[in-house]
Amino acid sequence: MLVLAGIFAPLIAPYNPIVPSGIPFTPPLTGGHLMGTDEIGFDIFSRVLYGLRTSLVGAVVVVTSGVVIGGTVGLVAGVVGGWVDTVLMRITDLFLALPGPVLAIAFVAALGPSEFHTLLAVAIVWWPFYARIMRGEIRALAARPHLEAARLAGAGPYRRAFRHLLPGAVPAIVVTASLDVGNLVLTLAGLSFLGLGAPAPAPELGAMAARGLQFLLQEWWVPVMPALVVFLLTMASNLSGDGLNNAMSDK
Amino acid sequence: MIKFAAKRFVSMVLILLVLTAIVFLLQKLSNVNPAHAYLGANASQAAIRHETHVLGYDQPVLTQYVHYVRNLLDGNLGVSLRTRHPVATDLGVFLPATVELAVTALVLAVLLGATFGLVSAARFRGAGAFRTLLLALASAPVFLLALLMILWISGDLHLLPGTGDTGYTNAPTGPTGMIVIDGLLHGQPAIAWDGVRHLIMPAIVVALGPAVSIGRVLRGSLEASMSSEFARTARAKGLKERTVVLRHALRNSTSAALSMTGLQVGLMFAGVVVVETIFAWPGIGLYVDQSIPQADFPAIAGVTLVLGVGYVVINTIVDILQAVVDPRVTLE
């Protein structure tokens, strides 16, 4: 539902998110504004829909890049073994030993705030988890009899990696990734809250909550509505991640 | 044991060197010319060139890095472009409030996490609902929790103050900089109590997320050890269920929960920055939030280093603690 709402935001949104459409500070459910309007008169419901889209796209992009980069590193380390494995995993451990979210803040601050830099920064600190998981899976699979059989049948290292090892490791990675989307939505919203996303008036959920903060006690809906949507999005991702996890482990 | 601790210590130093290298490279990447920033916007080209030479920015990068680390060890973190004070001095002003908040939140997170873990591992009616509630808590962004708490608890109910760390304008500023402790040291319990009241909401907001994660890990390993053979033996001995859980299962389950606690500290630091902004808590989070719009990179780098060092040191301590609790760890 929320994914659909995000995808079809331009169709559903009753107003343009960055053109004032009513009197500032219209309370929710009045004057044709489902979630009210903010201090400029922007329709919050429309902005929240677009923000949802940005959040979802961001989380999916980072998870995908994490899976691809981390997965490749883990696959190479697990398949090749030896000193390559040692070097790659030492680098991974180094990254894991540093506080990712804090580094991401510094990274974006150094490059200058923008949506692209935020995604880049989070992607850079996010892949090591996937490298660890992928390598663990590959090593466990490599010890199984069917790999022995493949080797005896004369399958080369590439064939072994892509035909025999990778498919076995995919389920674990998919489950981890689906459970991770919620975390990413929260992390990205946090960075956006600190002003590290796209500049105003772009509709980003975290930034909307941050800018609405000063109106909290009088016009509570301005900061609370976007925050509530972040919550719903994360909750939905976590529930579907849990569901997928259960479905996979039942098999 | 001592060998393990020494090994962890060496890798901690290595990790810290990498951390400084990353921050150093970011500083290079940011398009702020430190000499130019140091002299101000109206400096002449010649003056900038001279200052660049004096500050050593025309040296090879590696020399600059060595110079940078040596400066860090001397406590020289550069000059903030916004406040025009040395960053180290600024951090000295803002850090105590953050330490006060973070330590309180960490203790709360561990206590709450242990409670969540024990309660949700126990089989009782409503356990499913309790787990859903925990999942909801873990899904809420810190700023939503903070906003709702301010709205209800200080807005509607007027129970607790929603901004700052003290209501007193003449609150003592030394020697620790933490209001609660300073109040007590100066023999002014009213100020200390007021500090506690200011501390409650932000600390709870920061602690909730990590507490749920710790609780989930703890529940997982508790369930594993409850169905293990030693738990069956303990039950067969006729021990009460409570004794089995608290004396036998819990001790064997702390290891995973401990390393989760260490990892959560990183997320907690990011949470602290956001929460301080909302509650106007005068710590380094507020400092960095004010530095971001001004692109004050020396200040941001200083905060990153302080939080990064805190994270690495805490995790090293957690690792060593883990080895103390569960000697099997050292064998790996």
Structural features, described:
The complex is a heterodimer of chains A (251) and B (332). Chain A has 251 residues and is an all-alpha fold. Chain A has a single domain, classed as MetI-like fold (Orthogonal Bundle). Helices cover 74% and strands 0% of the residues of chain A. Chain A is elongated. By secondary structure, chain B is an all-alpha fold. Chain B has a domain at 93-289: MetI-like fold (Orthogonal Bundle), CATH 1.10.3720. Chain B is 75% helix and 0% strand. Chain B has 13 helices and no strands. In chain B, helix 5 (87-121) packs across helix 9. The longest helix of chain B has 39 residues, at 241-279. The radius of gyration of chain B is 24 Å and the shape is globular. The two termini of chain B are 12 Å apart. At the A-B interface, helix 5, helix 8, helix 9 and helix 10 of A face helix 1, helix 6, helix 7, helix 11 and helix 12 of B.
What is this structure, in a nutshell?
The complex is a heterodimer of chains A (251) and B (332). By secondary structure, chain A is mainly α.
- Helix content range of the residues of chain A, please? over 70%
Low-confidence stretches of chain A: none
CATH topology of the domain at 93-289 in chain B: MetI-like fold
Task: Please give the number of β-strands of chain A.
Answer: 0
Number of helical elements of chain A:
10
Q: Which structural class is indicated by helix and strand composition of chain B?
A: mainly alpha
**Mean pLDDT level of chain B:** 81
The termini of chain A sit apart by 27 Å
* Shape by Cα distribution of chain A: elongated
